Amino acid sequence: MEAAYYTACARNCGSKCILKVYVKDGAIVRMGTDDAAPDDPTSPQLRSCLRGWSYRERIYAPDRLQYPMRRVGNRGEGKFERISWDEAAILYAHMITEIREQYGPSSIFSMDGSGTIGLTLHNTWRGLGPRFLRMLGGGTEQTLSYSSGATTVAAPYTVGAVANSSAPNFLQTKVMLMWGWNPAEGGTGTNTAYYLQQAKEQGCKFYVVDPRFTDTAAAFADVWVPLKPGSDVALMSAMACVIIEEHLHDQTFLEQHTFGHEEWFDYILGRGADGQRKTPEWAEPITGVAANLIRQMAREYASVRPSALVMGLGPQRTAYGEQIARCGPALAALTGNVGVPGGYAGLMNWMLAFPGNGVGSLPGARPGPGGGRPAATVPCNQWPDLFLKGKSGGYPTDIHMAIATGGNHLNQGGNLNKAITALQAESLKYFVVHEQFMTPTARFADLLLPVNTLFERMDIAHANGAVVFMPKIIESLYESKSDWEIFTLVAGQLGLADAWTLGGKSEEEILRELAAAWPPTADWERFKREQIIRLNMADPIVGYEEQVAGGQPFKTPSGKLEISSPRLKAASHPQMPAVPQYIADWESPGDPLAQKYPLQLIGPHHKARVHSSFHNIPRLREVEKHALWMNPADAAVRGLAHGEKIRVFNGRGETQTTVWVTERIRPGVVALPQGVWHDPAEPGVAGSVDRAGAVNVLTNDRPTPFAGATAQHTCLVEVARR
Amino acid sequence: MQLGFHVNVARCIGCHTCEVACQETNGLPVGVCWRRVRVVEGGAYPRPFAYAVSMACNHCADPICVKVCPAGAYGKRADGLVVHDPSRCIGCQYCAMACPYSAPQYDEAQGKMSKCSGCAGRVDAGLQPACVGACPVRALAFGDLSDLGDLAATCPSGSCLTETLPLLPSPRQTRPSIRFKVRPEVTLQAARVLDGHRVRKI
Ligand code: SF4
Ligand code: SF4
Ligand code: SF4
User: Kind and range of the H or E element at B18?
Assistant: First the structure.
């Protein structure tokens, strides 16, 4: 007999879709998607993407880790021996005890990744790993994210708290500026592209600002604006200049809802310290965008209302990402498009807004009462430097042990070869990795523990427009266990099992109690049966509506949207001025290094992966070739033909891939989608040539100056035939 | 009655979800895609264009596969779906050579052809084809071609529906049961067609 269940995808693409799972004789035989309700335009089905449809192959992938293992070779060589769960738990507990006793609590680092996210119980992202360390009395935790680090720190100086709008909001938008935002390939919310296509059919005009002619540009752009990476603030400043000088700005909005716009006007109009008017002609050589196109975009954005400037997160993953995260909201405020239906506040944090729900959150998963605290915190992207330098590098602690849960940090951060040396540092005594597959990070583990998948354990998902009961659909494969079960075992060794399990509660008991906090899920048996509670998507959520229409203060000291920030003025950080300013990136066309490495490299998301998840699914790899995008002009100079084998290199590393020659990218810029698994010629040897096209052997780990966030899209390389 | 597909080329974002949903629903091995998403590219920087076309078997009114198959493996149902019976197929691949749309595909493991059935089993159970129910932007529809009003719900005026696209063979050959909602770029000179990892220059 075949049975069918619903569940939800829990990957970090920015969306959260519904999956359907057909089971026969205890095995998953087929995947489907949301068909539980008719596809009503006001409450559309939460359909999954191609990755969601590929889960069966992921669950039964031949490279699933099957049993606990202990390293036998050198770190990174990938040689292991099988051990039992009893041995693993004892070893794990010994490692923790030894390190805590010898070096103190902060010397254990939680390297939790976003591999499992958006759930109630089994989250890895800021989830079970940190909770475990807090239960012990605290370890070192990560702050920021690889996704949105600069925005997380910088945007609050302008807007107080980041508030997104929901996609149905765009049905009222007349001009849309999609700025480094690629929802056709990269999620940002279930049904986002569907709503945007409806907006387009209603006549909304689309500008797509991106060095690549992405699938989003192909599907939506009336006008493609291929700017140079890192020049966003110059482009936005020039738009502001046009808008102000042509009196297209919304003076009433500025006066009612913002603070310090005069100082920004001074900067834009050349009355500031640099004496430079930020005209389109000034911006043209910096951005590579023609002055008349800047004028046209500025006029249209400011004069047709409502208009929405939506920034993706790629632009702020650059050297001065902080400025971009502050300039977007300033530009949106200048045109009065903040807090109004159909507008947008010019920034984004990870995904669009969705209706919330009242399901409780796992006690202890956040700091606070009963939850413990971290002993120290460090921005996530700085871990290689932290591991290598510790206190001597100005960090709050030295690190002697790391626990990786749901993450592939080695593969996904800047300067992969430096990260290898960090994982091989003698000061790092123990590296424990919880994983489903033999990832590049897992190869470095001292203790490697097999984790089950979301189909093999119970949970509640916060999907995009629904709350979904996720049953345990099949038994855990092989000897795999959930992170929850693994930590329960280790807690048992440490005499803390009761603390971890909230007094010996089962997973279902915990979930049932959390569900009881919200009336629609309070009837547990009914929720288990019906599985999907849909939320109201029809009424748009408008970010900052309370502030603009409702008279509430922005969460800033002045209560206004602070175009100029008095706090930043007081801090007087040379690279974090009070008003957002264009600062030329390091490793950009003006850098002397460009003589040697003349091409700007960006690492966009690939439609067949979610970061490094799904890399190992052959079917998905067939969909689109992983290769380096290059403009024909750059290929001609190097004598390269489409499909040739190339090497991409700079002072940090070299990777081998093929060249994809295309008119769909700006000359001088190359793009190598992030997320393929690093495959060095010599495993475990830093600097060994990578054969997979893994972008991070090239990227920089130098953090942004104020937030300390990742700036992986600020990178110069050269390309040659091999 | 003639069942067929409506493909909204103006809406499609080229995500390949329909293709993978078809593979999963029909248990197809890697490399066998009954539905394929091909991307047509042209223009030159800074004004390139690209659009995706999702196409499977067109369940033609005059199906050449039915005519050329020496084993009688193909049949046309009363609802117009063209179905292939693998138990009769001898793997000669004549149909693949004859079909102007490359719909029949060779499954090496089975040594036989296979092809989109229009999800005949699902249709018989009152369901939509899997690809149609999977499309995240609702660019695909399926139904009786004589009832295009429903199929073209997303098309403001029926006049934007066409039977074919510039790069496709003449519909007179097999009278395919497919209608497209086009976008302006389809009239421009294309440079190449991307089909998975393959690139076909025009
Ligand atoms: S598309 Fe090809 S396989 Fe399908 S009915 Fe027409 S001729 Fe036959
Ligand atoms: S109708 Fe069914 S068999 Fe045909 S392409 Fe769609 S999913 Fe595949
Ligand atoms: S699923 Fe829809 S949008 Fe995606 S490629 Fe297929 S037809 Fe196009």
Answer: helix B17-26
**Rounded distance between C-alpha atoms, residue A14 and residue B199, angstroms:** 31
- A631: β partners: none
Half-sphere exposure of A122 (CA within 13 A, CB side): 30
What is the secondary structure of B33-77 as a DSSP string?
Answer: -SSEEEEEEEEETTEEEEEEEEE-----SS-HHHHH-TT--EEE-
Q: A344: domain CATH number?
A: 3.40.228.10
A622 with B49: Cβ contact below 8 A: no
Burial class (CB in 10 A: 0-12, 13-18, 19+), A291: middle
**Is B150 a residue whose pLDDT tops 60?**
no
Range of the domain at A185: 151-349+553-571
pLDDT > 90 in chain B, percent: 83
Arithmetic mean of pLDDT, A669-677: 98
Q: Tell me if B25 and A32 make a contact (CB, 8 A cut-off).
A: yes
Residues in contact with A370: Cβ distance below 8 Å, sequence separation at least 6, in sequence order? A363, A364
- Residues of chain A contacting B31 with CB distance shorter than 8 Å: 622
Taking the CA of residue A226 and the nearest CA in chain B, the distance in Å comes to: 8
Using CA coordinates, name the residue in chain A closest to B43. Answer: A663
**CATH of the domain spanning B3-200, picked from 3.30.70.20, 3.40.50.1100, 3.40.640.10, 3.30.420.40:** 3.30.70.20
pLDDT at position A321 over 60: yes
A625, B197: Cβ pair inside 8 Å? yes
- Ligand 3 in reach of B138 Cβ (< 6 A): no
Cβ contact, residue pair B196, A35, below 8 Å: no
**Single-letter residue type at A246:** E
Calpha distance B23→B136 (Å, rounded): 16
The position carrying tokens 């992207």 is A381
Nearest-angstrom CA–CA distance, A377 and A362: 21
Give Rg (Cα) of chain A.
25
Ligand 1, from B101, B102, B106: best to mutate by most atoms within 8 Å of Cβ?
Answer: B101
| Ligand 3 pocket mutation, candidates B5, B7, B16, criterion most atoms within 8 A of CB | B16
The ipTM, to two decimals, is 0.97
Residues 436-495 of A with CB under 8 A from B: none
Q: How confident is the model over A634-646, as a mean pLDDT? A: 98
* pLDDT for A682 beyond 60: yes
> Mean pLDDT across the stretch B108-118?
94
Lowest-confidence segment of A277-281, A502-506, B107-111, B122-126 by average pLDDT: B107-111
pLDDT at A27 over 50: yes
Please, what is the average pLDDT of chain A?
96
- For range A652-669, the mean pLDDT: 98
Q: What is the pLDDT of residue A371?
A: 62
